[in-house]
Amino acid sequence: MTAHLNTPGGATDAITRGTFLSRSAAWGAGSLLPFGALATGREAKSDVEILNVLLRLEFVMVAFYETAIDRAGLSRSLRRLAERTSDDDERHVRGLKNLIRELDGEPVGQGVIRFDGLRDRQSFLDQAVELEELSVSAFSGALPRLGGAPVTGSVGAILQVDARHAARLRLAAGLPPAPSAFGTALAPARVSRRLERYLR
Amino acid sequence: MTTRSERSRRGSPAPWGDQRRAAFPGALSRRGILLGAAASALAAAGCGGEEGERGERTAGRDAALGAQLLELEFISVDILRPLSTSSALEGDVREIAGSALAHERAHVERLEPIVRRLRGRPPERAVTGFGVEDADQALDVVAEAENLIASAYLGTIERLGDPELREAVLEIQAVEGAHAATFDHLAGRRPRDAGAPAGVPPALRTGAFVTPRTLDFVERRLRVLAVL
Asked: What DSSP designation does A120 have?
């Protein structure tokens, strides 16, 4: 059964549920201790804990764009970009919450989020680029630590969109859209520390 | 830098269940996840002396996947090269294309030795019939190609067993996503269409999740796009 609709070419071109199951089987013991973990030295964190770090990050990003739209006096085109990006991030929040519940976990709450110094176009772009890049590194760091195909597939689908957000925002800021040939990864614990400044 | 005008319109949101099914291809039900784990455990328990054989099969599969990714990178290099030098494009667009070209070459350098180590055979370097006669059309083609390549990387991650190849793919895939967004922007393509081919209902073209695609599918599409 095809697990998504964006495949007018047919199920043979899509990644199917059956494929995921057979992949898990093919991985054998590896699916319980992912290859990425073997390579990178896995932190003792469950998938739910890692996904909750990513969820907290997406909460921060949604709140950031909402605050910027209210306060930063954005031009029409930047405002539209902020709205679109925020819409995507809201969908990521819902997706991650669902995923956590499917793993029998409890999604973290949003809590109180604050942004200092968000008052104009430049401060918006500076912080937006920083946050989206943090997100790309966070999702990249999470992927090899997660326990298998169903979860990594969902996280990967978000990661690339946040990479797109970062590129669009960098372009808007007059920066090179993709500054490096290779992405960097940040461990969940470091992501949590970076988020502390926004959480009250 | 000028781009074609964006015609972004916000589609009415689909119910979350539909969106999730549409956009979270890897999101199995909890039962699915448990079944996967059980299947893995069974496979592990039954492997016994077959481990070596399975390791070889995995290495062979990884080599083949790595070679296919390399082929996509070769195609990407070949279509970005004329873009980076074409006088039909503005200087800053050429500069961006040149930077993307350098990235793709770096990806080739990263992937090629891994494929060789896995005893795979790197493919021949692609020579496409792609040229820049019309700047808008050329940007459209490159945007489509970069979206396809990004979705191929996403569709490959979970299939890889070799840690080094997996790490390389993880490092590359976000950059391919950034290239896709960049050329979407330069080509004036709606961001919400990212990863959603023609025929997908507007309500599902949210662009909030990238659709993973198989390497075979992407390679077929690229061959048509790049006139291989």
From this structure: S
> CA–CA separation, B217 vs A178, rounded Å?
26
Cβ contact B207:B185 at 8 Å: no
Task: Select the residue of A148, A157, A177 nearest B209 (Cβ to Cβ).
Answer: A157
Selection from A146, A136, A123, A113 nearest residue A36 by Cα: A146
Average of per-residue pLDDT across B3-11: 38
Report the amino acid identity of residue A33. Answer: L
Q: Which residue of A has its CA nearest to B16?
A: A94
- Cα B191 off chain centre by: 16
Rg of chain B in Å (alpha carbons): 19
What pLDDT sits at residue A74?
Answer: 95
For A84, which of B8, B35, B197 is closest by C-beta distance? B8
Using a CB-CB distance cutoff of 8 angstroms, which residues of chain A are in contact with residue B217? 9, 12-13
Q: For the purposes of burial, counting CB atoms within 10 Å of the CB of B64, is it exposed (0-12), middle (13-18) or buried (19 or more)?
A: middle
Q: How far apart are CA A54 and CA A78, in angstroms?
A: 25
Q: Would you mind telling me the total number of residues written for chain B in this entry?
A: 228
Tens-place pLDDT, residues B101-133: 999 999 999 999 999 999 999 998 888 888 888
Q: How far is CA A164 from CA A95, B3, B123, B163, B174, in A?
A: 18, 17, 29, 26, 8
Q: How much of chain B exceeds pLDDT 70, in percent?
A: 69
Whole-angstrom distance, CA of residue A8 vs CA of residue A156: 21
Cα separations in angstroms, B123 against A61, A196, B64, B165, B203: 42, 47, 10, 16, 40
A33 and B CB contact within 8 Å: no
Q: What is the ipTM of this complex?
A: 0.77
Nearest chain B residue to A9 by CA: give it.
B217
CA B190 from centroid of its chain's CA atoms: 18
Q: B131 vs chain A: nearest CA distance in angstroms?
A: 24
The conformation of residue A113, written as its DSSP 8-state character, comes to B
How many other β-carbons are positioned within 10 Å of the β-carbon of residue B24? 23
Q: What is the pLDDT of residue A168?
A: 95
